[in-house]
Design goal:
10 helices, 6-stranded parallel sheet, alpha/beta, about 25% helix, 15 strands, about 400 residues
Protein backbone atom coordinates (compact mmCIF):
# COMPACT_ATOMS: atom_id res chain seq x y z
CA UNK A 1 0.00 0.00 0.00
CA UNK A 2 2.89 2.37 0.78
CA UNK A 3 4.35 1.79 -2.69
CA UNK A 4 0.94 2.46 -4.27
CA UNK A 5 0.44 5.75 -2.42
CA UNK A 6 3.99 6.88 -3.17
CA UNK A 7 3.67 6.02 -6.86
CA UNK A 8 0.36 7.81 -7.33
CA UNK A 9 1.42 10.82 -5.28
CA UNK A 10 4.57 11.23 -7.34
CA UNK A 11 2.64 10.72 -10.59
CA UNK A 12 0.48 13.76 -9.85
CA UNK A 13 3.14 15.74 -7.97
CA UNK A 14 6.35 14.78 -9.77
CA UNK A 15 9.80 16.31 -9.36
CA UNK A 16 10.03 19.41 -11.55
CA UNK A 17 13.46 19.88 -13.11
CA UNK A 18 14.38 23.29 -14.57
CA UNK A 19 13.40 23.74 -18.20
CA UNK A 20 16.21 23.53 -20.72
CA UNK A 21 17.11 26.28 -23.18
CA UNK A 22 15.81 24.24 -26.10
CA UNK A 23 12.53 23.20 -24.49
CA UNK A 24 9.60 22.69 -26.84
CA UNK A 25 6.69 25.06 -26.35
CA UNK A 26 3.27 23.47 -26.59
CA UNK A 27 -0.04 25.07 -27.41
CA UNK A 28 -3.28 23.34 -26.38
CA UNK A 29 -6.34 23.61 -28.62
CA UNK A 30 -9.38 23.45 -26.39
CA UNK A 31 -9.78 23.67 -22.63
CA UNK A 32 -10.41 19.94 -22.49
CA UNK A 33 -10.75 17.99 -19.28
CA UNK A 34 -8.24 15.41 -20.50
CA UNK A 35 -5.44 17.96 -21.06
CA UNK A 36 -4.13 18.13 -17.45
CA UNK A 37 -3.84 14.35 -17.26
CA UNK A 38 -2.61 13.78 -20.80
CA UNK A 39 -0.08 16.58 -21.18
CA UNK A 40 0.04 19.36 -18.59
CA UNK A 41 0.84 17.07 -15.65
CA UNK A 42 3.40 14.93 -17.52
CA UNK A 43 5.12 18.08 -18.82
CA UNK A 44 6.02 19.10 -15.28
CA UNK A 45 8.68 16.41 -14.99
CA UNK A 46 10.06 16.87 -18.51
CA UNK A 47 12.85 19.43 -18.78
CA UNK A 48 12.25 19.88 -22.51
CA UNK A 49 8.53 20.65 -22.45
CA UNK A 50 6.79 23.94 -21.65
CA UNK A 51 3.01 24.35 -21.84
CA UNK A 52 3.00 27.84 -23.28
CA UNK A 53 -0.53 28.63 -24.41
CA UNK A 54 -4.16 27.52 -24.64
CA UNK A 55 -7.00 28.54 -26.93
CA UNK A 56 -10.70 27.72 -26.75
CA UNK A 57 -13.89 28.83 -28.48
CA UNK A 58 -14.90 30.42 -25.17
CA UNK A 59 -12.14 32.86 -24.26
CA UNK A 60 -13.27 33.15 -20.65
CA UNK A 61 -13.14 29.39 -20.29
CA UNK A 62 -9.65 29.35 -21.79
CA UNK A 63 -8.52 32.09 -19.37
CA UNK A 64 -9.86 30.17 -16.37
CA UNK A 65 -8.22 26.99 -17.66
CA UNK A 66 -4.90 28.76 -18.10
CA UNK A 67 -5.04 30.19 -14.58
CA UNK A 68 -5.90 26.83 -13.05
CA UNK A 69 -3.07 25.07 -14.87
CA UNK A 70 -0.33 27.71 -14.79
CA UNK A 71 -0.35 28.37 -18.54
CA UNK A 72 1.13 31.82 -19.33
CA UNK A 73 -0.71 32.66 -22.57
CA UNK A 74 -4.31 32.59 -23.75
CA UNK A 75 -4.80 32.90 -27.49
CA UNK A 76 -7.90 34.46 -29.02
CA UNK A 77 -8.40 31.63 -31.51
CA UNK A 78 -7.02 28.30 -32.65
CA UNK A 79 -5.61 29.98 -35.75
CA UNK A 80 -3.80 32.59 -33.67
CA UNK A 81 -2.09 29.71 -31.89
CA UNK A 82 -0.96 28.21 -35.20
CA UNK A 83 0.28 31.58 -36.44
CA UNK A 84 2.57 32.05 -33.45
CA UNK A 85 6.16 31.16 -34.40
CA UNK A 86 6.96 30.75 -30.70
CA UNK A 87 4.78 27.61 -30.52
CA UNK A 88 6.56 24.41 -31.55
CA UNK A 89 3.93 21.75 -30.88
CA UNK A 90 0.16 21.52 -30.82
CA UNK A 91 -1.85 19.21 -28.58
CA UNK A 92 -5.33 18.49 -29.98
CA UNK A 93 -7.86 17.14 -27.44
CA UNK A 94 -10.83 18.59 -29.34
CA UNK A 95 -14.03 16.64 -30.12
CA UNK A 96 -13.35 13.81 -32.57
CA UNK A 97 -14.98 15.57 -35.49
CA UNK A 98 -12.50 18.46 -35.25
CA UNK A 99 -9.33 16.37 -35.05
CA UNK A 100 -8.78 16.06 -38.79
CA UNK A 101 -9.16 19.74 -39.72
CA UNK A 102 -7.02 21.12 -36.93
CA UNK A 103 -4.35 18.47 -37.30
CA UNK A 104 -4.07 19.32 -41.00
CA UNK A 105 -4.00 23.04 -40.26
CA UNK A 106 -1.36 22.54 -37.56
CA UNK A 107 0.90 20.45 -39.78
CA UNK A 108 0.60 22.93 -42.63
CA UNK A 109 1.62 25.62 -40.14
CA UNK A 110 4.79 23.62 -39.48
CA UNK A 111 3.81 22.47 -35.99
CA UNK A 112 4.46 19.06 -34.46
CA UNK A 113 1.15 17.47 -33.45
CA UNK A 114 0.18 15.27 -30.53
CA UNK A 115 -3.31 14.18 -31.54
CA UNK A 116 -5.81 12.64 -29.15
CA UNK A 117 -7.25 9.31 -30.21
CA UNK A 118 -9.12 8.46 -32.25
CA UNK A 119 -6.93 10.36 -34.67
CA UNK A 120 -9.83 11.28 -36.95
CA UNK A 121 -13.45 10.36 -37.72
CA UNK A 122 -12.91 7.59 -40.27
CA UNK A 123 -10.34 5.97 -42.54
CA UNK A 124 -10.94 8.43 -45.38
CA UNK A 125 -9.72 11.25 -43.16
CA UNK A 126 -6.89 9.07 -41.83
CA UNK A 127 -5.59 8.32 -45.32
CA UNK A 128 -5.43 12.02 -46.10
CA UNK A 129 -4.00 13.18 -42.79
CA UNK A 130 -1.24 10.63 -42.40
CA UNK A 131 -0.16 10.97 -46.03
CA UNK A 132 0.11 14.76 -46.07
CA UNK A 133 3.18 15.75 -48.10
CA UNK A 134 4.13 18.25 -45.39
CA UNK A 135 4.90 15.37 -43.02
CA UNK A 136 7.93 14.43 -45.10
CA UNK A 137 9.48 17.80 -44.36
CA UNK A 138 9.80 17.56 -40.60
CA UNK A 139 6.61 17.90 -38.55
CA UNK A 140 6.04 14.94 -36.22
CA UNK A 141 2.50 13.58 -35.93
CA UNK A 142 1.57 11.10 -33.21
CA UNK A 143 -1.83 9.62 -32.36
CA UNK A 144 -1.86 9.74 -28.57
CA UNK A 145 -2.45 6.08 -27.74
CA UNK A 146 -0.84 6.60 -24.36
CA UNK A 147 -1.42 3.11 -22.92
CA UNK A 148 0.75 1.57 -25.63
CA UNK A 149 3.79 3.33 -24.16
CA UNK A 150 3.37 1.89 -20.67
CA UNK A 151 5.86 -0.77 -19.47
CA UNK A 152 3.22 -3.34 -18.49
CA UNK A 153 1.72 -3.33 -21.99
CA UNK A 154 5.08 -3.69 -23.72
CA UNK A 155 6.12 -6.50 -21.39
CA UNK A 156 2.77 -8.26 -21.82
CA UNK A 157 3.16 -8.25 -25.60
CA UNK A 158 6.71 -9.58 -25.29
CA UNK A 159 5.29 -12.76 -23.74
CA UNK A 160 3.19 -13.51 -26.82
CA UNK A 161 4.09 -14.90 -30.23
CA UNK A 162 1.34 -13.58 -32.53
CA UNK A 163 1.59 -16.74 -34.66
CA UNK A 164 0.38 -18.78 -31.68
CA UNK A 165 -2.64 -16.59 -30.84
CA UNK A 166 -5.98 -18.37 -31.16
CA UNK A 167 -8.31 -15.96 -29.39
CA UNK A 168 -8.18 -12.50 -27.82
CA UNK A 169 -10.88 -10.80 -25.79
CA UNK A 170 -10.66 -7.21 -24.59
CA UNK A 171 -12.99 -5.05 -22.56
CA UNK A 172 -13.18 -1.48 -21.29
CA UNK A 173 -16.00 0.07 -19.28
CA UNK A 174 -16.92 3.49 -17.98
CA UNK A 175 -19.61 3.52 -15.24
CA UNK A 176 -22.96 4.91 -16.31
CA UNK A 177 -22.49 7.94 -14.08
CA UNK A 178 -19.21 8.85 -15.81
CA UNK A 179 -20.95 10.23 -18.89
CA UNK A 180 -24.20 11.97 -19.76
CA UNK A 181 -26.26 11.91 -22.92
CA UNK A 182 -25.26 15.48 -23.72
CA UNK A 183 -21.52 14.75 -23.66
CA UNK A 184 -19.55 15.07 -26.88
CA UNK A 185 -19.28 11.26 -26.84
CA UNK A 186 -22.91 11.09 -27.95
CA UNK A 187 -23.04 13.77 -30.65
CA UNK A 188 -22.98 12.15 -34.08
CA UNK A 189 -22.17 15.42 -35.87
CA UNK A 190 -18.78 15.58 -34.14
CA UNK A 191 -18.14 11.85 -34.57
CA UNK A 192 -19.35 10.62 -31.23
CA UNK A 193 -19.87 7.03 -30.20
CA UNK A 194 -18.56 4.53 -27.71
CA UNK A 195 -16.41 2.75 -30.30
CA UNK A 196 -14.73 6.11 -30.94
CA UNK A 197 -14.00 6.33 -27.21
CA UNK A 198 -13.39 3.17 -25.18
CA UNK A 199 -13.64 1.06 -28.32
CA UNK A 200 -10.42 2.56 -29.63
CA UNK A 201 -8.56 0.84 -26.79
CA UNK A 202 -10.25 -2.53 -27.12
CA UNK A 203 -9.91 -2.65 -30.92
CA UNK A 204 -6.25 -1.64 -30.85
CA UNK A 205 -5.51 -4.33 -28.26
CA UNK A 206 -6.74 -6.98 -30.70
CA UNK A 207 -4.67 -5.67 -33.60
CA UNK A 208 -1.52 -5.41 -31.53
CA UNK A 209 -1.80 -8.87 -29.97
CA UNK A 210 -2.42 -10.50 -33.35
CA UNK A 211 0.18 -8.13 -34.84
CA UNK A 212 -2.11 -7.87 -37.83
CA UNK A 213 -5.28 -6.24 -39.07
CA UNK A 214 -8.66 -8.01 -39.12
CA UNK A 215 -9.90 -9.49 -42.37
CA UNK A 216 -13.54 -9.20 -41.42
CA UNK A 217 -15.87 -7.96 -38.72
CA UNK A 218 -18.03 -11.02 -38.13
CA UNK A 219 -20.53 -9.25 -35.90
CA UNK A 220 -21.03 -5.98 -34.09
CA UNK A 221 -23.88 -5.81 -31.62
CA UNK A 222 -24.57 -2.34 -30.28
CA UNK A 223 -26.83 -0.38 -28.01
CA UNK A 224 -27.32 3.11 -29.41
CA UNK A 225 -29.36 6.27 -29.20
CA UNK A 226 -32.00 6.80 -31.85
CA UNK A 227 -32.96 10.46 -31.79
CA UNK A 228 -31.58 13.94 -32.48
CA UNK A 229 -27.85 14.61 -32.52
CA UNK A 230 -27.41 11.40 -30.52
CA UNK A 231 -28.83 9.20 -33.28
CA UNK A 232 -26.46 6.42 -34.40
CA UNK A 233 -24.15 7.02 -31.43
CA UNK A 234 -23.50 3.72 -29.69
CA UNK A 235 -23.04 3.62 -25.95
CA UNK A 236 -22.18 -0.07 -25.82
CA UNK A 237 -20.72 -2.48 -28.37
CA UNK A 238 -19.44 -6.01 -28.72
CA UNK A 239 -17.55 -6.64 -31.95
CA UNK A 240 -16.06 -9.91 -33.21
CA UNK A 241 -13.28 -9.98 -35.80
CA UNK A 242 -11.49 -12.68 -37.78
CA UNK A 243 -7.74 -12.26 -38.26
CA UNK A 244 -5.50 -13.62 -41.05
CA UNK A 245 -4.17 -16.54 -38.96
CA UNK A 246 -7.75 -17.71 -38.39
CA UNK A 247 -7.81 -16.36 -34.84
CA UNK A 248 -10.82 -14.58 -33.39
CA UNK A 249 -10.82 -11.31 -31.52
CA UNK A 250 -13.70 -10.03 -29.41
CA UNK A 251 -13.89 -6.47 -28.12
CA UNK A 252 -16.45 -5.20 -25.61
CA UNK A 253 -16.74 -1.58 -24.56
CA UNK A 254 -19.36 0.58 -22.90
CA UNK A 255 -19.90 4.11 -21.64
CA UNK A 256 -22.85 2.92 -19.57
CA UNK A 257 -21.21 0.30 -17.38
CA UNK A 258 -21.96 -0.88 -13.86
CA UNK A 259 -22.00 1.57 -10.95
CA UNK A 260 -18.71 0.38 -9.52
CA UNK A 261 -15.73 0.99 -11.83
CA UNK A 262 -14.01 -2.13 -13.12
CA UNK A 263 -10.55 -2.29 -14.67
CA UNK A 264 -10.14 -2.88 -18.37
CA UNK A 265 -8.71 -6.20 -19.43
CA UNK A 266 -7.32 -8.22 -22.30
CA UNK A 267 -7.09 -12.03 -22.30
CA UNK A 268 -5.05 -13.98 -24.83
CA UNK A 269 -5.38 -17.70 -25.55
CA UNK A 270 -2.47 -19.39 -27.28
CA UNK A 271 -2.64 -22.60 -29.26
CA UNK A 272 -1.71 -25.86 -27.58
CA UNK A 273 1.86 -26.97 -28.20
CA UNK A 274 3.89 -30.11 -27.57
CA UNK A 275 6.45 -29.75 -24.79
CA UNK A 276 9.45 -32.11 -25.06
CA UNK A 277 9.80 -34.21 -21.91
CA UNK A 278 12.40 -36.96 -21.92
CA UNK A 279 11.11 -38.31 -18.61
CA UNK A 280 7.96 -39.63 -20.29
CA UNK A 281 7.67 -43.03 -21.93
CA UNK A 282 7.59 -43.01 -25.73
CA UNK A 283 3.88 -43.81 -25.62
CA UNK A 284 3.06 -40.44 -24.02
CA UNK A 285 3.43 -36.75 -24.88
CA UNK A 286 3.24 -33.57 -22.84
CA UNK A 287 1.10 -30.65 -24.05
CA UNK A 288 0.85 -27.05 -22.87
CA UNK A 289 -1.77 -24.38 -23.49
CA UNK A 290 -1.38 -20.85 -22.12
CA UNK A 291 -3.78 -18.06 -21.25
CA UNK A 292 -2.45 -14.60 -20.43
CA UNK A 293 -4.46 -11.74 -18.98
CA UNK A 294 -3.48 -8.12 -18.46
CA UNK A 295 -5.86 -6.53 -15.98
CA UNK A 296 -6.13 -2.79 -16.60
CA UNK A 297 -4.25 -2.24 -19.83
CA UNK A 298 -5.40 1.39 -20.08
CA UNK A 299 -4.32 3.08 -16.83
CA UNK A 300 -1.73 0.70 -15.43
CA UNK A 301 -0.13 3.30 -13.16
CA UNK A 302 -2.97 2.95 -10.65
CA UNK A 303 -2.99 -0.83 -10.60
CA UNK A 304 -2.51 -3.68 -13.01
CA UNK A 305 -1.56 -7.33 -13.01
CA UNK A 306 -0.36 -9.81 -15.59
CA UNK A 307 -1.76 -13.27 -14.92
CA UNK A 308 -0.43 -16.38 -16.66
CA UNK A 309 -2.26 -19.68 -16.57
CA UNK A 310 -0.50 -22.71 -18.04
CA UNK A 311 -2.51 -25.88 -18.51
CA UNK A 312 -0.50 -29.07 -18.97
CA UNK A 313 -1.70 -32.47 -20.08
CA UNK A 314 -0.01 -35.82 -20.48
CA UNK A 315 -1.67 -37.80 -23.25
CA UNK A 316 -1.20 -41.27 -24.63
CA UNK A 317 -0.81 -41.82 -28.35
CA UNK A 318 -4.52 -42.59 -28.50
CA UNK A 319 -5.26 -39.09 -27.17
CA UNK A 320 -6.44 -40.23 -23.76
CA UNK A 321 -5.49 -37.80 -20.99
CA UNK A 322 -3.30 -39.47 -18.38
CA UNK A 323 -2.78 -36.39 -16.23
CA UNK A 324 -3.81 -32.73 -16.29
CA UNK A 325 -2.76 -29.82 -14.08
CA UNK A 326 -2.50 -26.03 -14.03
CA UNK A 327 0.26 -23.65 -13.01
CA UNK A 328 -0.38 -19.99 -12.22
CA UNK A 329 1.90 -16.97 -11.95
CA UNK A 330 1.43 -13.21 -11.95
CA UNK A 331 3.53 -10.10 -12.36
CA UNK A 332 3.34 -6.31 -12.17
CA UNK A 333 5.48 -4.03 -14.34
CA UNK A 334 5.29 -0.41 -13.22
CA UNK A 335 8.69 0.48 -14.67
CA UNK A 336 11.05 -0.90 -17.26
CA UNK A 337 13.26 -2.18 -14.45
CA UNK A 338 10.33 -4.28 -13.21
CA UNK A 339 10.55 -6.19 -16.49
CA UNK A 340 13.82 -7.72 -15.25
CA UNK A 341 17.50 -6.94 -15.70
CA UNK A 342 17.81 -9.52 -18.44
CA UNK A 343 14.96 -8.14 -20.56
CA UNK A 344 15.35 -5.82 -23.52
CA UNK A 345 13.38 -3.20 -21.60
CA UNK A 346 15.58 -2.93 -18.52
CA UNK A 347 17.60 0.12 -19.62
CA UNK A 348 14.82 2.18 -21.17
CA UNK A 349 14.13 5.66 -19.76
CA UNK A 350 11.45 6.10 -17.14
CA UNK A 351 10.54 6.24 -13.49
CA UNK A 352 8.13 4.07 -11.52
CA UNK A 353 5.81 7.08 -11.07
CA UNK A 354 5.60 7.86 -14.79
CA UNK A 355 2.09 7.50 -16.13
CA UNK A 356 1.55 6.14 -19.61
CA UNK A 357 1.10 9.75 -20.72
CA UNK A 358 4.56 10.64 -19.41
CA UNK A 359 6.13 7.70 -21.26
CA UNK A 360 4.31 8.84 -24.39
CA UNK A 361 5.59 12.41 -24.00
CA UNK A 362 9.14 11.12 -23.62
CA UNK A 363 8.93 9.32 -26.95
CA UNK A 364 7.22 12.25 -28.70
CA UNK A 365 9.95 14.67 -27.64
CA UNK A 366 12.68 12.19 -28.54
CA UNK A 367 11.27 11.83 -32.06
CA UNK A 368 11.13 15.61 -32.52
CA UNK A 369 14.69 15.98 -31.21
CA UNK A 370 15.94 13.27 -33.57
CA UNK A 371 16.70 10.81 -30.81
CA UNK A 372 15.89 7.11 -30.73
CA UNK A 373 12.31 6.15 -29.92
CA UNK A 374 11.64 2.71 -28.47
CA UNK A 375 7.87 2.76 -29.00
CA UNK A 376 5.73 4.57 -31.55
CA UNK A 377 2.36 4.63 -33.29
CA UNK A 378 3.09 4.75 -37.00
CA UNK A 379 1.00 6.38 -39.71
CA UNK A 380 0.15 2.94 -41.07
CA UNK A 381 -0.96 1.86 -37.60
CA UNK A 382 -3.27 4.85 -37.18
CA UNK A 383 -4.81 4.32 -40.62
CA UNK A 384 -5.37 0.61 -39.87
CA UNK A 385 -7.03 1.55 -36.57
CA UNK A 386 -9.59 3.74 -38.30
CA UNK A 387 -10.26 1.06 -40.92
CA UNK A 388 -11.06 -1.37 -38.12
CA UNK A 389 -13.43 1.12 -36.48
CA UNK A 390 -15.11 1.76 -39.85
CA UNK A 391 -15.48 -2.00 -40.33
CA UNK A 392 -17.30 -2.31 -37.01
CA UNK A 393 -19.59 0.68 -37.59
CA UNK A 394 -20.55 -0.65 -41.01
CA UNK A 395 -21.32 -4.08 -39.57
CA UNK A 396 -23.37 -2.56 -36.74
CA UNK A 397 -25.64 -0.73 -39.15
CA UNK A 398 -24.92 2.63 -37.54
CA UNK A 399 -22.71 3.73 -40.42
CA UNK A 400 -19.40 5.57 -40.51
CA UNK A 401 -18.81 8.79 -38.63
CA UNK A 402 -19.14 11.87 -40.90
CA UNK A 403 -16.21 12.97 -43.07
CA UNK A 404 -14.97 16.56 -42.80
CA UNK A 405 -15.30 18.74 -45.89
CA UNK A 406 -12.08 20.55 -45.02
CA UNK A 407 -9.22 19.98 -47.43
Amino acid sequence: MTALVSRIWSAFSPPQPPKSAGALKFGVLGAANIAPLALIGPAKSHSEVIIQAVAARDHQKAAAFAKANGIPEVKNSYQEMLDDPNIDCIFIPLPNGLHYEWAVRSIRAGKHVLLEKPSVSNSTEAEILFNLPELSNGPVLLEAFHNRFYPAWAYFRSLIDPADVVHVSSNAKIPWWGTSKNDIHFNYNISGGNMMAMGTYTFAALRLIFNNNPEECLSCDVKAFTEGVHKNCDYEAKATFRFPNGGIGEAFSTLKGETLPKPSGVTVTLKEVVVPDKTLPTSQEKFQSRELTLRDFIHGIFWHRIDIKDTFAIRGKDGEVVKRWEEHSSRKVYSWKDAGDGSRFANLPGEVYWMSYRHQLEQFVNRIKGRETQHWVSAEDSIAQMKMIDMAYEKSGLGLRPTSTYR
